[in-house]
């Protein structure tokens, strides 16, 4: 202890850190309020992390931060070591019941030359605040202010909480399958930008990707291939649980989607009694949509769906179950309505809140169910009329599988070309007249017809997904393309360090 405090004294005398400006840091999403004070906190080999010890999750968040600091700086920063700190040279992550912190996911970050104090009511808020802290630590150290390396953290105060409670992305693991490792890497990147939802599109015509123990052929047969005829794959329930837990450690909720009654060719090949389009079913490796449907008038189909929803719900701690419901072009309208209403009951029976693509609002769905708006303004209006919440995923603005421009690799362009600026420059709060009260949040879906490995996923998702994080977290007043574009350029060192194969948009002056 004596040695440590002596070292701390020495450090204080010696260091002469350059002036800083917290407000000019490259934070994305932009926090609600930033007040800069021009000094710096020296992150170095003498820094220690302390956390509230009796508040759930805080110690683990301290460990998470230490691991990320090790990755960025190489420093081995202890967490909750025995010596009682004198609050100098420490990062403290504390649970606080302060009224100022009562908004969900709210946090406050105070950086002074002596300490970094991160306060939040909840572990979730603390976790979001840790991402801000990660972002304001410089990529490179100062090597001349001391005999050891120092990373100066700009001082000041940040007061923050998100605009939208739902900030998501979707990964289509059905058209092409992606491994647990790939999904975890995507989760890590989403977490850094304060996303809190990952929607997994687990089934489609080309593949069934989640093990259902009571219906093993779904994965044996339905999971055996993918677009282009490659080998496909699926998550065992254990692997899915691994993903769910990994996401939960990053305060990200996994939303499973089983797309039905259309987009069900893979299920029907596995169990032909499910099929309702009157044709012989075969494995499908193409990219057409809208040709498949379940037989919506057979009780046995609902018994099957009951098993599927039950098994998946049992390993999904999050509150949502996504039933798809899009593009059921060969399901009769009355059959579609009957189907959605019946499946909604099953979803509720297993304690989940139903989400569906915007077409589901044509059925008599509960106001608690959620519509994911992707194309139909008419459906969005209907959802509003029913008092439903809406997830904003307008294809023209938020689809990560749209090409950036006619020359960029991968992707489709049926909705639009979406360059990096266009993806950012729109106001979800004022889109197609949808009242902001109905908007649960934003989700950027990545359909995978044209991408078959994680590098290609990253090319489409980054940098656009970074922009959606700001659209869903930051206030409209804090969003500005000119400012964003500079902050985005400065994400390059992070993206490179994470080995992200992002699209080097020519609109950005990459650092
Ligand atoms: C439409 S958007 C689909 C998907 C395709 C996507 C390709 C929606 C609910 N359905 O089946 O993959 O377009 O962009």
From TrEMBL:
Which controlled-vocabulary keywords does the entry list?
A: Glycosidase, Hydrolase, Signal
Q: Which PROSITE patterns match?
A: PROKAR_LIPOPROTEIN (PS51257)
Report which superkingdom the organism of origin falls in.
Bacteria
Query: Which cellular components does GO assign to this protein?
Result: membrane
The molecular function GO annotations come to: beta-N-acetylhexosaminidase activity
A Gene Ontology annotation in the biological process aspect, one of them, is:
carbohydrate metabolic process
Please name the top-level EC class of this enzyme.
hydrolase
Q: Which residues form the Glycoside hydrolase family 20 catalytic domain?
A: 164-329, 337-475
Pfam families in UniProt: Glyco_hydro_20, Glyco_hydro_20b
UniProt entry tagged with the keyword Hydrolase = yes
EC number(s)?
3.2.1.52
Active site annotation, chain numbering: 327
The UniProt catalytic activity note for this protein reads: Hydrolysis of terminal non-reducing N-acetyl-D-hexosamine residues in N-acetyl-beta-D-hexosaminides
Residue stretches making up the Beta-hexosaminidase bacterial type N-terminal domain: 26-149
Tell me which family the UniProt entry assigns to this protein. Answer: Belongs to the glycosyl hydrolase 20 family.
PANTHER family, sorted? BETA-HEXOSAMINIDASE, BETA-N-ACETYLHEXOSAMINIDASE
Q: What is this protein called?
A: beta-N-acetylhexosaminidase
Which organism is this protein's natural source?
Pseudozobellia thermophila
